[in-house]
Every structure is written in structure tokens, then in C-alpha cells.
Write a structure and sequence with these properties.
The chain is globular and about 60 Å long. The chain has three domains: 126 residues, Rossmann fold (3-Layer(aba) Sandwich), CATH 3.40.50; 249 residues, pyruvate-formate lyase- activating enzyme (Alpha-Beta Horseshoe); 55 residues, Nucleic acid-binding proteins (OB fold (Dihydrolipoamide Acetyltransferase, E2P), Beta Barrel), CATH 2.40.50.140. Helix 11 packs parallel to helix 13 and helix 14 runs parallel beside helix 15. By secondary structure, it is an alpha/beta fold. The protein starts with a strand and ends with a strand. The strands form five sheets. A six-stranded parallel β-sheet has the order 2-1-3-4-5-6, with helices on both faces. Strands 15-16-17-19-18 form a five-stranded mixed β-barrel. Bound molecules: 5'-deoxyadenosine and iron/sulfur cluster. The site of 5'-deoxyadenosine has 12 residues, from strand 13.
């Protein structure tokens, strides 16, 4: 038996990929460890979306190089793998900068991981091809024991890659063209997860609502059909999906939020900017009014829907006026949460070559103002839950004796006092108070 330590950076798709890598390694006798010092195999599952994320990888590799040397001095081995989007983007450059690395493997090749590790025993290997075979169908299933270990919520990647080419984004280059997994492959995977105790699935994709997988007859289906089919699977009581693009938010998909009770009333719909001029140079292919129209339709269908988004401040050419348009959009929509970032020029993307880059100080100031506005909206949203009755999916034991911890439909962490409910139950609770990171609640019986 050998121990593998996997560290994931970035988005939920990497979290999912990390589990699938563990599943791929399990038949070869690898078990996961949470302590890097004990590991015979270390995998960094990297993110390339912003410069800082990529920098972190190199500093972590420096630390691992020293660990590998110390282990070697004790006669122990350690293989080091760089996976994920930095691996895809930088390839052999990683081996040049960090000789402690044994294998560089891109996100499309994880099913070849055991084989590549063997080859890397002899000399360092780089595998960043986009293979013709579908990695998902080639990856082994997780065991029932490891599903149970991972808890009652699960991620399932249903779509990878992106054809949208927003001018700031590396994803179309690192994850390649859009690919949708076939309907039956997704349903089979979720059925197994449900049998292992999973109650909530989050369907993942860089453009998840552009999913157009094939059914058994080779007919391409729209995303809402996938949602309907997943909702019918026994044991699946909650469905979420992310990340969506406003362009693919069709009327039929919005309507599905009325028809499918399992769909949680919480939508992550990134808009990036509230300025039409900037949306245009970002190549987002929609206007701010298009975005407002989607939100309006969504709220008409599901008045209890809450929203989150991604924002970029300091995109090249963004003026104070443009930024104020973004602040205005946020005020008008009202978010439950949001992720916000300073624009980070990514090599090879069109926006990196624009000459009207925004000075760092302006980016800092705008980010601080935007985050203050979002934080105020988030607090107001959480406060508005106090006193209400909401359903909570119980995920684990709580912080204090007698408490259980779970999530609201809006992904708020909830601590239930004196709970009778067990892990996997969905219980109605009355929200009694608001802590720093969670809601407090009392179970209704
Ligand atoms: N700079 C800053 N933020 C970025 N994102 C993507 N590319 C960049 C970049 N170059 C953000 C977007 C996207 C989220 C996943 O990361 O907001 O929605
Ligand atoms: Fe990147 Fe735009 Fe595709 Fe999202 S839609 S992955 S931001 S290119």
C-alpha cells in the first residue's frame, strides 16, 4: 500500500478531478493521506486562472523539493506530479523550473495516471495531449466506501471546456473545446453516488448550462432535460449546477426552476462587469440589460431565488465610470454572495495584449469598494433568514455536543442545536440567530 497526497487549487472541477485521480490510483494500491510528509506520491492539482494561483504552485514545489530530498536521505522515495491547468499551460517548462517534478499531466489525461507514473520512474514525463478517448469513461468508478467517506453532497463534472473565448480567460486554452458527457454516463455515475448515500449533487462545467450531451439514440439534449432526469433518480433530493453563462440561460432552463422542486433556488450567474463597453471588450456576448432580463425572468419563476456572481475589476480600459456601472448593477440585482477578482493578465489571451491596462492602485481601490458592497448585501441576506423556517441538509456533526451541521438551500452553513436529525436527512429548522460564519437553528419536529 502506498500513500498519495493530493492538493487541489482553484475551482470545484479540480476538487472533482482530485477525487477521480484518487479513484484512478486506488486499483494500483494507493490510499489517500492528509499529511504530505507521509506520502510516496504528491499531486498538485493546479489552477491557472489568475497569476497568483500559478505562482503558488511554484512556491509549493520549492517546499516539496526539500521534503523529497529529506525523504531520500532516509532511504524513502517520493514521486511529484503537477496536474491541472498549470500543467496543461506550461508543460515542459515546469520540469525546467523545478527538477523535483517527475510527471506533468494535463486535465484530459488523468485516466493514464498509473501508466504515466510507471514511465516516470525512469525519466520525467510530460503528458499534455488532448487524447481522442473520453477520460471520464476510461476512469474507474469510486468504491462505495470512498463515496460514503466523501459525504452526502457530491460534485459531478458533466461538461468541460469552453468555446466562448472571453478575452481575459485561459480556460478555452487549458481545458479545450466544449465537451458534454453523455446523458447515460452522468446518470449512471449519480445513481452510484446516490446508492452510496449522496443526497445532493452539484453538476459542474465551465459552461454547465451549455451542456448538450447525447442520449442513447445519439440525439443531443438540452441541459434542462439532464436536470429533469437527475431529479428523478432515487435518493437525489437536491440539485445545483455551476458555472452558468448568461448566454445559455434559455427560457426553457429558467422554466425548469419552476418544474423541478429538487433544483435549489440559488443560481451562480457570473456577469463580470456592469458596463456594456467592458462587457463588449470582454467578448461576453451580452449586455447589462440582457443580464437584468434574465434575473427578472428567474425571479418571476422562483421568487425565492438568490443569486451569486463573479466580478472582475480593472479589466483593461475600465474607467471609473465603467466601474460605477458595475457597482450600480450590484445594487440593482442584490446578491447573496459573490467572488471578485482584480484583472490578471494571462499569457496568450487577447486582453493581456491591450495597452490600456489599469494601474494596480486603482484595481485595489475598486476591489475594496466592490467587496464592501457585496459583504453588506451578504450580511443583509443572512440576516433576513433569521426567524424563517428553512430546510437543511444535515452533513456532519456540529461544533458543539448535540449540534449537527448542514446547509440551507442557499449554501449557508447552519448549526442545529439539540438535533435529532441524522446525516443525510433534510430537516425543517427555525433560524434563531446569525454567527460569523453560520446560522444557528432549532429543529422543528
Ligand atoms: N483575471 C481575473 N479574474 C479572472 N477570472 C477568469 N480569468 C480572469 C483573469 N484573467 C475570473 C472570472 C471567472 C472566474 C472563474 O475567475 O470572474 O468567472
Ligand atoms: Fe472563461 Fe468566459 Fe469560458 Fe467562462 S465563459 S470559462 S470566463 S472563456
Amino acid at each position: 500500500m502506498q500513500k498519495v497526497f493530493i492538493k487541489s487549487y482553484g475551482c470545484q472541477m479540480n476538487v472533482y478531478d482530485a477525487q477521480r485521480m484518487a479513484d484512478a490510483l486506488a486499483p494500483n494500491g494507493y490510499v489517500e493521506t492528509k499529511t504530505i510528509e507521509d506520502a510516496e506520491l504528491v499531486v498538485l492539482n493546479t489552477c491557472h486562472i489568475r497569476e497568483k494561483a500559478a505562482d503558488k504552485v511554484y512556491s509549493e514545489l520549492g517546499r516539496i523539493r526539500r521534503m523529497k530530498r529529506d525523504r531520500k536521505a532516509e532511504g524513502l522515495s517520493m514521486q511529484v506530479v503537477v496536474a491541472g491547468c498549470v500543467a496543461q499551460a506550461e508543460g515542459a517548462e515546469i520540469l525546467r523550473r523545478e527538477p523535483a517534478v517527475d510527471l506533468v499531466i494535463g486535465p484530459q489525461s488523468y485516466h493514464r495516471l498509473p501508466e504515466m507514473l510507471q514511465a516516470a520512474q525512469l525519466k520525467p514525463v510530460v503528458d499534455t495531449e488532448f487524447p481522442v478517448e473520453d477520460k471520464f469513461s476510461a476512469l474507474p468508478d469510486p468504491s462505495q466506501a470512498s463515496i460514503k467517506n466523501r459525504g452526502v453532497t457530491a460534485f459531478v463534472t458533466v461538461q468541460e471546456g469552453c468555446d466562448k473565448f472571453c478575452t481575459f480567460c485561459v480556460v478555452p486554452y487549458t481545458r479545450g473545446a466544449e465537451l458534454s458527457r453523455p446523458l447515460d454516463a452522468v446518470l449512471t455515475e449519480i445513481r452510484k453516488l446516490a446508492a452510496g448515500g449522496v443526497r445532493e449533487v452539484t453538476l459542474l462545467g465551465q459552461n454547465v448550462n451549455a451542456w448538450h450531451g447525447l442520449d442513447a439514440h445519439g440525439t443531443s439534449l438540452p441541459f434542462e432535460t439532464l436536470l429533469q432526469q437527475v431529479a428523478q433518480l432515487e435518493g437525489i433530493e437536491r440539485i445545483r449546477y455551476m458555472t452558468s453563462h448568461p448566454r445559455d440561460m434559455t427560457a426553457a432552463l429558467i422554466n425548469a426552476h419552476r418544474e423541478i422542486p429538487e433544483l435549489m433556488p440559488y443560481l451562480h450567474l457570473p456577469v463580470q462587469s456592469g458596463s456594456d463597453r467592458i462587457l463588449d471588450t470582454m467578448n461576453r456576448q451580452h449586455s447589462r440589460d440582457d443580464y437584468f432580463a434574465i434575473i427578472e425572468q428567474m425571479r418571476a419563476i422562483r421568487p425565492d431565488v438568490a443569486l451569486s456572481s463573479d466580478f472582475i475589476v480593472g479589466f483593461p480600459g475600465e474607467s471609473e465610470r465603467d466601474f460605477l456601472d458595475t457597482m450600480d448593477l450590484i445594487s440593482r440585482v442584490g446578491y447573496a454572495a459573490a467572488y471578485s477578482f482584480k484583472y490578471s493578465p494571462r499569457p496568450g489571451t487577447p486582453a493581456a495584449d491591450l495597452d490600456n491596462q489599469v494601474p494596480e492602485q486603482a484595481k485595489d481601490e475598486r476591489l475594496a469598494a466592490l467587496q464592501a458592497l457585496i459583504a453588506a448585501q451578504q450580511t443583509a441576506f443572512n440576516q433576513a433568514t433569521v426567524g424563517r423556517t428553512i430546510p437543511v441538509l444535515v452533513e456532519k456533526a456540529g461544533r458543539k455536543p448535540g449540534q449537527m451541521a448542514g446547509k440551507s438551500p442557499y449554501l449557508q452553513a447552519v448549526q442545529i442545536d439539540d438535533a435529532k436529525a441524522r446525516i443525510g436527512d433534510i430537516v425543517e429548522v427555525n433560524v434563531t440567530g446569525l454567527g460569523t460564519n453560520s446560522l444557528y437553528a432549532r429543529e422543528l419536529s
